[in-house]
Write a structure and sequence with these properties.
By secondary structure, the protein is of the alpha+beta class. The chain has 8 helices and 11 strands.
Length: 318
Amino acid sequence: MTTPAGWYDDGSGSLRWWDGTQWTAHVRTTDGAPAAPERVSVEPVASELRSPDIAPFAPPYALPSSGASTAQAIAPDSVGAPGGVWGAPAPQPPAPGVSVLGVIGLAVVVLGVVCACIPVISIVGWALLGVGFVLSLVSLFLRGRKWPGITGLSVAAIGALLALAVSLLLVATVSVPADDAASAEGLTDPSSIEGAEMVPFAELEVGDCLPFVDYGDTGQIYELPVVPCDQPHTDEVYFIFELDGEDFPGDDALEEAAWDGCASHFDAYVGVAYEDSVLDFYNYQPTETSWARADDRTVQCILFSHEDVTGTLEGARY
């Protein structure tokens, strides 16, 4: 604390003027008479300061406020400031915490990686990855610990590579050619049968012979392989007819009408009643879509044998 300006005993028996910051050359005796000016040494001789005849100078000073028990006044070692007080150290700023933006960016990146690996929502995942990457990058330029931003950038890079690998694997799986997919499932590609000609349903004729083909779970078929009848085969077209009506009758009613129409002509083609024959039959019929859009009303009745046959089944009588 600063001592105010005034006349103070300088320790030599005289009063010297203290201007508030330093001693001046103005002195006077203790009875008030001015003393002859004298040159004051800036640094007194050490032996004079330690002389037993001269008491050390201690001008007035102000004590610190109550509670600062450790503060104390100190006397100068030389002619300088007349007194001083030990002060408390300046408070240190608090250590920076974790960057909130970095934590948010890391969370968005992790969510983006998970979504990008799910084919249905992969686009959303890639968008989240981009947003998280930007947030993590920006967080590195803000106050706070940097590890969330650095971790977010690393996870974004690794996650992008992982999501890309999943996408490429999915594309490779979906883009397998139909014949390769059929081979992988143990099915036969009809177009690969020797001597077979793929014929649309509308061009099938009675007497066309068909080899056995396992279509698996194929819902709709648009053409069939037709082979010469002197080549081993199992199926044969034996009757084709048209259904009546403008409105689609429904799957059950349509199936019943097709069955009845094919059964009524089995005996005439094979030469023996259906109940007594070792042969069986099935049919192809219109779908609701083909009925409405293509005006399809045609039913194809197909004989089939459980073993390969050569030649026509017409008049087989078994």
